[in-house]
Amino acid sequence: MARGGAPPASPPPPLPPSGPEPLPRRALRKLLLVLGSLLMSLYASYCLAGAAHVLTREPAPIPVAPGEEAAPGTPRNPFWPPQPGGEGDKRLPQAVIIGVKKGGTRALLEFLRVHPDVRAAGAEPHFFDRNYERGLTWYRELMPRTLDGQITMEKTPSYFVTKEAPARISAMSKDTKLIVVVRDPVTRAISDYTQTLSKKPDIPTFESLTFKNRTTGLIDTSWSAIQIGIYAKHLENWLLYFPIGQILFVSGERLISDPAGELGRVQDFLGLKRIITDKHFYFNKTKGFPCLKKAEGSSKPHCLGKTKGRTHPSIDQKVVQRLREFYRPFNMKFYQMTGHDFGWD
């Protein structure tokens, strides 16, 4: 007992613990599970977004120089070259260069690309002859983006000789403008053979492929190099679906001798302002054909690749003369159908 008889002081009551009360273990486990699930969902979304970027990013360009032909087996990238800017919409083409092989279609398209109101697919889509079952949505995706007032184009020279192509293009749009680049059918056939020879050096001679029977002089019209040049026959098929005024025939010879003049006709046909003129071209004596002083999107001169302007093999002149005789009536009919004398005789 304390001095003075006072009872001893009792100890102070314990202070309540500071902060919130600890969660029960079961509630804590549930909270951790919820947080873990949320983190996993966020991580999965991040991974999926990364994968989508890889799948949709701009494809790499094909490993082929501009104007060159890809080696057999080289994958084509129909979205290359990229068009300036990322605005606009992908539209089905309003104009198609439908032919002909070895006529000068590549040169025409390269020259047209200079025009600011022309946008064209990079590689040949081959939609109306080889890929029609893929549908118009697939086809439209191959086209570059265009703004209002710009023209979407593509070129596939084999369309002109494809029986189903006219009806298919008409089904897409009866208003489609068609361009055919034609060339002396004898020279075209030799150029066609020269291209094949560069890829398959062991093929038979031009002379042996030309005739079914050389003794009688009977021409083998089943050989594609010969068959393509019967322009009147192919044109008849197109006129079943399109009026002659909706088809422009470009001279492959004048595309070399007077590129600005032929491009003027093409620009008028497409309803474009005549922007591509003489100032855009110079004649390359080494190659033997005109080149652009400035290519699209570049300040440097541009010529078609080394696969263009190949030296033709020497062909027996008697064979050449026989071919001229063979093509003459077809040429005359073609002149009458088009109202244009191309002067191949």
Write the layout of secondary structure elements.
Elements: H1 25-56, E1 89-90, E2 95-99, H2 105-112, E3 118-120, H3 136-141, E4 145-146, E5 151-155, H4 165-172, E6 177-182, H5 185-199, H6 206-210, E7 211-213, E8 218-219, H7 224-227, H8 231-238, E9 247-251, H9 252-257, H10 259-269, E10 281-284, E11 289-292, H11 317-338
Parallel strand pairs: 2-5, 2-6, 3-5, 6-9
Antiparallel strand pairs: 1-4, 7-8, 10-11
Protein traits:
5-stranded parallel sheet; two-stranded antiparallel sheet; 11 helices
Radius of gyration: 34 Å
Quaternary organisation: single chain
Q: Strand order across the biggest sheet?
A: 3-5-2-6-9
Taking pLDDT < 50 over at least 5 consecutive residues as the criterion, the unreliable ranges are 50-85
- Total of DSSP H or I helical runs spanning 4+ residues: 11
- Most strands sheet: 5 strands, parallel
Order of helices and strands: HEEHEHEEHEHHEEHHEHHEEH
Shape, please? elongated
Which class do the helix and strand fractions yield? alpha/beta
Domain Sulfotransferase: 93-328
InterPro entries: NST/OST (IPR037359), P-loop_NTPase (IPR027417), Sulfotransferase_dom (IPR000863)
Region (Disordered): 1-22, 65-88
EC number: 2.8.2.-
Description:
There is one protein chain. The protein is of the alpha/beta class and 345 residues long. Helices cover 36% and strands 12% of the residues. The protein contains 11 helices and 11 strands. It has helices at 25-56, 105-112, 136-141, 165-172, 185-199, 206-210, 224-227, 231-238, 252-257, 259-269, 317-338; strands spanning 89-90, 95-99, 118-120, 145-146, 151-155, 177-182, 211-213, 218-219, 247-251, 281-284, 289-292. The strands form 4 sheets. Strands 3-5-2-6-9 form a 5-stranded parallel sheet. A two-stranded antiparallel sheet has the order 1-4. Strands 7-8 form a two-stranded antiparallel sheet. A hairpin with a 4-residue loop joins strand 10 and strand 11 (289-292). Helix 8 (231-238) runs parallel beside helix 11. Mean pLDDT is 83; it is low at 50-85.
